[in-house]
Request: fold
Amino acid sequence: MPVDHVSISNLSEHEGETVTLKGWLYNKRGGKGIAFLILRDGSGLAQCVVNQEEVDEASWTAASDASQESALAIRGSVRADERQVGGYEVQATSVELISKAEDYPITPKEHGVEFLMNHRHLWLRSRKQWAVMRVRNQIIYSMHQFFQEQGFVQMDAPILTGNAVEGTSTLFEIDYFGRPAYLTQSGQLHGEAMAMAMGKIYTFGPTFRAEKSKTRRHLTEFWMIEPEMAFYDLDDNMSMAEGLLCRLVTDVMSKCATELEMLERDLEPLKRVEGPFPRVSYDEAVDILHSDETQRMMDQRIESAKEEDARLEAELAENKKAYGQAKKWQKRKFDAREIEIHKRRNEIEEDLRNLPKWKESARTFEWGTDFGGSDETVITWHFDRPIIVHRFPHQFKAFYMKRDPEDDRLALGMDVLAPEGYGEIVGGGERATDLAFLEAQVEAHGLPAEVFDWYFDLRKFGSVPHSGFGIGLERTVAWICGLHHLREAIPFPRLLDRIHP
Ligand code: 4AD
Ligand code: MG
Reply:
């Protein structure tokens, strides 16, 4: 490797020098005797200018032959040019074709999401996917920093387990040498054991749920971070979750500004992510669903969706009329806008189908049942930042939850709901500490007591109040990046109908 090999992201440190860039051809323009090669190396994009007269014949041939995603090494001098991507440009002195890519399947034209998902291994090279993965990386890094700075110990919970954590309906069962075992749904129970050894811990690992529904919020394999803290009550737990989310959003906004811009993320809702988050009890949330104000909000949304649709329809008609006389470049603009309008109108159509159902389901919501995705969305409309819903009816919550001493019908759980329709991204609560109560709960939930013997021990030997929560990494990434579906928030999504590539 030449000593002058540098990353595109470091070009600013090499102005005026001769360097070598190594990467893949992202895009190419050219004319007679000149080629503009946009190179991507994973750290960024840079334009490299190749003048036929200034390079040898082999270099010119390499530049001419290079197709989209061909691998290249380009040597040249660095100059600042703020009009170019990344703000720097390289004037090539030599070009080497490391390997040629034949007929790269993902071209700049529009592709359907199924096609892109089937080519996920290549799609990851595209700009938007690149930006998402960089934000994901920042979130993971900030997550570790946040907990480590406060003296938490990271623990690895087992992935193969003998017990359910979050109910038995989403377990992936495997044959463990003739005995049944499961892929973990959550590291929480083992995390509790470790918290009794360390005080404050967090797990960070893959978790699995055999979700048989196709929604944009569910993966069958996702990554979860689960802090568990001895001597923390429900309020302490809520503050911890709030602090974490604020930190993640702040870090991504300051360290991934370019990525957010590529993703066209509206920053206004992110800027409002500041503590304290409104803390809303389940009872209050139900009131919100039942309120006249919610019904009015629904009507307003239906109205404005109809208005927007009419506006877009009119714009489409205008463009059609102008199309005949338009110049070629104008036609291209119209074509692009038409695709955009169709996409938006499909979304509006979906909203207009959903909103009346949501309106009805909010009005008739029954106390004692769990919120659906639409209920969560509707509740968050009433606030300008994430909210924390707490104290749920125990019947739809996990066996390990502590009951509210003030009201035995309620479990001391809490969920953080993100705004903009992202819904639950954090779930957690205060844990039951009483042995007899826990034993009764295991039985009431139809779970086999013998696999929980070790968990019961935690209540026999120095049981203390403790709390924790789980934050879904992909839901957090999707929310902060503004992605519609979780499948783009993880490198290789696992869904009901997808385990390839
Ligand atoms: O609310 P959940 O099921 O809670 C637990 O697993 C607890 N044991 C956590 C704890 O207290 N230590 O899951 C926690 C979070 C959800 O809020 C969501 O962000 C994410 O995990 N999550 C999923 N993400 C993607 N796909 C799925 N199928 C998910 N299920 C849960
Ligand atoms: Mg939950």
In short: The two ends are 32 Å apart (CA to CA). The longest strand covers residues 18-31.
